[in-house]
Amino acid sequence: MRLAATVMLARPAGARFEIFMLRRSERSHFVPDAYVFPGGTVSELDLSERALARTRFAADVLELSARIGSASAFDVPLATERELAALSFAALRELYEEAGVFIACDADGHPVAANDAGRADFLESLERNGIYADARELILFSQWLTPPQFPKRYNTHFFLATAPEGAPAVADAHETHDGLWIAPGDALARNEVGDLHLVYPTIKHLERLARFETLDELSTFARTKKILALSPETVADGFALPPSLENAW
Question: CATH no. for residue 213?
């Protein structure tokens, strides 16, 4: 099972907020042509001392681990401390590679913008400029696992982040296309009429986000909620969560 990280990037929009989404390439082996949040699998480089030395973390990993529990009938592997750290780096790397959004800080913790033209290698850019991936801006929101009957399984950790002011957020035109900012409720409505292809985990997260009026309310909730590692059940028409988990995760 592959570890993966996904970022639900949000920004204020009037009195409410929007989420950034990308359309996966139609040639992608994973959810082709679907609109998703930026993200991808954790690499060996993400787990390396090199990467972790170039990351600033918000809180003690043990504190974060204490918020994570299992809510699945299946055997759910919980990330180790090192894996949780690597997931944060991977989330920021994927956000930069797929959406062009650079979340970093200097040695004193002050936000900085990307200095390299184009989408240079994320880690090399951090090292060359003497700056750090700023995982303080990430809030772990959930952990979802691909059901066991699928040949390719992912242990995906969803993070919430607020976009830096003026962040461009543009699809890379390789793995992803047609980036858009959209209110969670609007994305769900467009999916209902067949205008925006979404997969089940994305739908469930958008439903969760759509309950909040403002980004501040959502962020406050995300920082204190329990992280329930779960895997959806398969039913005749797709997937479903047990009723007891609908409002619990």
Answer: 3.90.79.10
Domain that includes residue 238, residue range: 2-245
Report the chain's terminal Cα–Cα distance, integer Å. Answer: 21
DSSP line for 183-196: -HHHHHHHHHTTSS
**Contact status, residue 199 vs residue 36, Cβ threshold 8 Å:** yes
Tens digit of pLDDT for each residue in 20-32? Answer: 999 976 665 556 6
Q: Are the C-beta atoms of residues 68 and 54 closer than 8 Å to each other?
A: no
Give CA 83 to chain center in angstroms. 15
Rounded alpha-carbon distances, angstroms, from residue 241 to 154, 156, 171, 181, 200: 17, 16, 31, 27, 10
Q: Count structural domains, the chain.
A: 1
Give the span between the Cα atoms of 78 and 38, in whole angstroms: 22
Beta-bridged to residue 13, according to DSSP, are 16
Which position has the token pair 């772990």?
A: 140
Q: What is the DSSP letter of 4?
A: E
Q: List 234's β-bridge partners, or say none.
A: 239
Record the tokens describing residue 236, joined without a space.
């005749």
CA distance 206 to 203: 5
Pairing verdict, β 238-240 and 68-70: unpaired
Query: For 126-176, how does the pLDDT look when each residue is reduced to its tens digit (9 = 90+)?
Result: 999 999 999 998 999 999 988 878 888 899 999 999 999 887 777 655 566
Residues 6+ apart with CB under 8 A from 214: 12, 15, 16, 17
- Cα separation, 238 vs 8, in Å, equals 23
Give the model's pLDDT for residue 7: 97
> Per-residue b/e over 67-77, b at no fewer than 16 CB within 10 Å?
ebebbbeeebe
